[in-house]
Amino acid sequence: MSVFIGLVRRDLALALLRPGTLALPVVFFVLVAALFPFAVGPDARLLARIAPGVLWVAALLAALLPVETLVEPDRADGTLDQLVVRGLALELVAAARLIAHWLGFALPLLIALPVAAILLQVPMAVLPRLALGLLLGTPALAALALVAASLTAGLRGGGALAGLIVLPLALPVLIFGVGIAAPGALRLLAASSLVAVAIAPFAAGAALRGATR
Amino acid sequence: MTAQHLRVDDLACERGGRRVFEHVGFTLAPGGALQVEGANGAGKSSLLRLLAGLLDPAGGTIDNPFAVAWVGHEVTLKPGMTLLAELHHWARIDRRSAADVDAALARFDLSALRELPCSVLSSGQRRRAALARASLSGAALWLLDEPSVGLDAASRARLATTLADHRGGGGLVVAVTHEPLGLDAPQRLRLGE
């Protein structure tokens, strides 16, 4: 367990070394939200109606940005080899990476959410529900990004391929996240997120084993 | 109870559908050293990865009762981290103390560089850091892939001393190399013949 916590802390420390990499998805998220009023016009009612969908698509696309730096550097520089010869399961390594990645990706996104929401003229009363939705849904986005990153580690153009892997799999999260006001949607969102988080360490671990072979 | 050995029997290796080598076998006792030689592409590094469990054999068996320390081609140091932070990270996983880290740094004459970020280290210094990480791991079996590449004469001497000390304490060394490492009476294995 102490090794696991050590891995999470190490991943967070490495992420903080490159604050730009952490900021990039957040800036992207806000920028996409800022684009929509220009694209569809300043009609406040229309914007407020499409805002949840826009925010979720923006979050989904933002989740793809860190994919190329999530796992590949550790494969290329031998970190994974060093962990494997020490008898650590790659599933454990992947689970630690998932937690660290979620903290580094979702927390800044949640902090930026009010800004993006104001740009889209979202009524303040709706904001807590959107935040709750993102809080529940981002673990799934982080998990899918991790699996895609592990599957494409070492491949040229892996980032683009990762998008093709993540986007279809993220559909349930998108549907329940956008429709969070509907009865039961919150639970279904949480359920889809749980499934993704539960499966991801094993899928990523298996993929990484292939990548280090 | 008899002393444990590293036993490799009738080992075969395939990479990308090509048979790299087969019928490789050896036994290494505690304190022993095996020097693996051979032309480029003969499978030296692959043999090392097989021994480390980083690769699955295409045939044959590996019986390795020892913990492994790995020094591959990559030095595995994160650019923004200090040398000390890097060694501490791996020492924590290996359950070694800060004193072990200090000793390993001194052994490879890295003590003065400990607070420097790894990105400013020279390639020889990085290689020494990778060797220091292996030497402080506490693992009995050291797998070294061309450990002396990029090292100056003084560092080679330190490596030779470290390897001798490790073997003196019952440790095992398997090294891929094109040049003498100063190993005392190593077993030799030539691949690709």
Structure write-up:
The complex is a heterodimer of chains A (213) and B (193). Chain A is an all-alpha fold. Helices cover 84% and strands 0% of the residues of chain A. Chain A is elongated, with a radius of gyration of 18 Å. Chain A starts with a helix and ends with a helix. The model of chain A has no long low-confidence stretch (mean pLDDT 93). The termini of chain B are far apart. The A-B interface holds A 3, 6, 10, 13-14, 17-18, 76-79, 81-88, 212-213 and B 52-56, 67-70, 72-78, 80-81, 89-90, 92-94, 137, 143.
In short:
The complex is a heterodimer of chains A (213) and B (193). With 213 residues, chain A is an all-alpha fold.
Count every beta strand of chain A, where a strand is a DSSP E run of 2 or more residues: 0
Give the SSE string of chain B: EEEHEEHHHEHEE
* Cα separation of the termini of chain B: 37 Å
The coarse overall form of chain A would be elongated
Estimate percent helicity of chain A: over 70%
Low-confidence stretches of chain A: none
Largest binding interface between chains: A-B, 21 and 25 residues
Strand content bin of chain A: under 5%
Keywords:
heterodimer; A: mainly alpha; 84% helix; B: alpha/beta; three-stranded antiparallel β-sheet; 5 helices; 31% helix; 25% strand
Layout of helices and strands:
The complex is a heterodimer of chains A (213) and B (193).
Chain A: H1 2-17, H2 19-40, H3 44-64, H4 67-70, H5 72-76, H6 79-85, H7 90-119, H8 127-151, H9 158-169, H10 171-178, H11 185-212
Helix pairs in contact in A: 1-7, 2-3, 2-7, 3-7, 3-8, 7-8, 7-11, 8-9, 8-10, 8-11, 10-11
Chain B: E1 6-15, E2 18-28, E3 33-37, H1 44-52, E4 59-63, E5 68-71, H2 83-93, H3 98-107, H4 123-135, E6 141-145, H5 153-168, E7 172-176, E8 187-190
Parallel strand pairs in B: 3-7, 3-8, 5-6, 6-7
Antiparallel strand pairs in B: 1-2, 1-4
Helix pairs in contact in B: 3-4
